[in-house]
Amino acid sequence: MTQRGMTATAGVLIILNLSLIALTGWKIWDYNQPKPVVPQVQAPVELSQTITSSQGSFSITFPAGWDAVMRVMDSDRFVVDGSRQPLANKDVAADIKDVAYFDTDGPVVFEAAIDDDFAAPQGEANDLLIGKDKYLLSGRKYVHTYVGMDVGSQRSNGDKDYVYSFSVGGKRELRVTYRVYAADNVDNVKVVDTIVRSIRKLK
User: Fold this and answer.
1) Structural domains of the chain sorted by starting position, each given as residue range(s) with its CATH number in brackets
2) 63 exposure class (CB count in 10 Å sphere: 0-12, 13-18, 19+)
3) What pTM was computed for the model?
4) Of 190, 173, 177, 188, whose CA–CA distance to 137 is shortest?
5) Would you tell me how many other CB atoms lie within 10 Å of the CB of residue 2?
6) Which of 163, 85, 171 is nearest to 123 (CA)?
7) Is 46 a residue whose pLDDT tops 60?
C-alpha cells in the first residue's frame, strides 16, 4: 500500500472513531435529559352487566365489581343500600339480586328509579343529555354538598348528593341518586356518570 493510501485509510478510521465518540456522547447526554411526564389516563370503566328494571321501563349497565345491587321487583328501581361505596373491579362480576320490595330509614348510596313522586332536587344544576336517537333523554345533573343547616341526623358535614333527573312523560321522572358520605371519603361520580350514560328508556 502506498503512503498516500495509508494516509487515506487512517483518515477514514479517525473520522469513524470521532463519529462513534460523538454518537456515544450524544446518547449519554440525551439519556440524562429530563423526559416529559406523560399523564396517566384512567381506562374507561368496564361495564359488565346490563339489566332491565322489573317493570321493563328502562335498562341500566353496572360495572364489574359492583356488589349488593338490588333490583326491586314491585317497582322500576335499583338500589345499593348502606353508605359504603361500591368499587369497580374488572375481575369480579357485578352482583345483582332481586328483592320483593325495599324500604329503609338508613343510608342508601345509589338508587335508579322511575316514579312520579320525587322530592325536588337540591344543588347546582347543569343540563345533561344521554343516549341517542330513540333512546335520547334530556335532563339535568344536580350537585349538592351538605354544610351548616343542611346537616341532620342522616347526613354529615361534607356529604354530597349527585342527582340525575330526566322527565319520561307526564309527571314520571327517571332519577338516579348517588350519595357520598364524608365518613367513607370516596367519591366515584365518574363511575356513576358512566352508569347513567348507559341507561336506555324502554317504555
Assistant:
1) 47-201 (2.60.120)
2) buried
3) 0.74
4) 173
5) 7
6) 163
7) no
